[in-house]
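Appendix B, record 7
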Amino acid sequence: MPLSDSPCLRLAIARLTAAEADHYAVWVLQAPYPGGYVHHDRHWPATLSQAWQGWQSLFSLRNVPDVPRLPSTYTPQPVVLPPPAEDTVATGQPTNYTSQFMQHLGVELWKWLFDGSIQSSLDQSLGIAIGQNRQLRLRLEIRDPRMIALPWEIMQSYAGRQAISLSQQILFSRTTSDVDPLPMLRSEQSLKILLVLGQDTEQDTGQDAGQDVGQDAEMDGPQAKTSAAGNNLLQLEQEAEALAQVLKGAAEPDADFRVVNPVACAVTKLLQPTPAELIQELESNNYNVLFYAGHGVPAADGGLLFLRSDAAMNGTELAQVLTRRQVKLAVFNTCWGAQPDHDQDQQAIPRSSLAEVLIHHGVPAVLGMRDSIADREALSFIQALAHALAERSPIDEAVAIARQHLLTLYKFNQPAWTLPVLYMHPEFDGELIKPIAEGMTQIPIGSQTWLGRQVPKASLRSLDFPNRSWPIRGGMMRVGSLVEENDLVIQEPGVSRKHAEILYRDSFADNSTEPTYFLRDFSRYGTLMSGPEGRWHKIHHQEVPLRPKTQIRFGSSQNQSLEFLIEG
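Structure tokens (predicted):
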């Protein structure tokens, strides 16, 4: 079932501008039924702030700002939970206390958000999705920047239930309404990933302790300084190669993952590029995924990515090329990628996190980290995410699968599974790779027909982008603009929903008994084909034989040219 047909429930949280500082409005911006558009006002309770402060003391690796602020008369009190069992303390293993605390905050966040009519809207929306045998997309928009740091991904209806971001029945993501419109996106048939490794520490970028490091290097002499740089570069190359192998192997089954109907995966590596080199690489190829690993810091314009010691790039600059080249998913293994910047008074700046800025500019999906994540945890997450994407899972479902993998490896009471934060453009259906249409019957490749003869392998190749081609599988290709009903999706002017078919069968034209390929047109405006003398002529509601090297334009004469090829 195409995800674009799945029901969607989109919620928004905003702080009221009245005198009361801790009152919020929660309302439904999108629902799958008319009665689902409800509204509810909520007071932010002191008990929830206590739970959040306790979370930070247990799980935060850095000093995350308190949100939201409470009146000055409030004195924080510890949340009282049952003490951990003595046997768990003696073993030195994670105690039951942290699990209880994880659940406690998750339940409190759920109670606060899904209260009254909001809960009813969720229940009915989920019922509609289940009745249609589909998934429910739940997207949360947080308009108060102070609340972005909260781990909304751990929400659960009550203790013992699955956290909302782990579910594959409810696909959870964050979003925002303040966005540029999403253009018509090209249909993808494979994973094409650009892997960028930048500076990986604050010292490498000259931040904070950079001067001390430089002084020590000078004391050791220039030879030691050169040697250290060479070792760092070698280590970076080894890290990049290891990560590239993980991504390239996404479509290959192994002991942990079973890949069904996988797609091809190509990975290009960039090590500490300049901004110009990164832009040039993105401009030169049709990547659909960007992976960035390296140091980053919050800033008002989407944060700074330290590509190398002498070059950084902010989120606003990166957004221009990502949207222009239609990169569908950007993943950032860098600190604070999903956190806003703060002003001199430590007030969170609206719409300043890297993830938000990219979504604002029209990037369909962005995944950042809420806090620091260990290298082994990040590698486990990326591996599971790549496998899910290679199985054609939509992006929000793939993130849920990868999050489940993190929880299994590093346990519920550890923060690893809570760190990835996914933002989705409100108009994006999550499709990265075209799914295999359910119920579509295709002749197997290489099937024996026509008295034992095999179907010759054929394909369409783009003349505008020579490296792109589409095989005609099983002697049949459906062409049109509708994603779920066609093998080759062309979303260009004049292309009909069901435009044409290319099929292989016996031909008795011209007194020939040789089987051949045909083009059959069903479209409104016709299909253009090149003739023997290079002249173009229109095929409209006709069936004509296809010769090798024939050029085809579906729809308008200004659309891309495709060349029909038969192997051998």
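Remarks on this record: The two ends are 38 Å apart (CA to CA). The mean pLDDT is 79.
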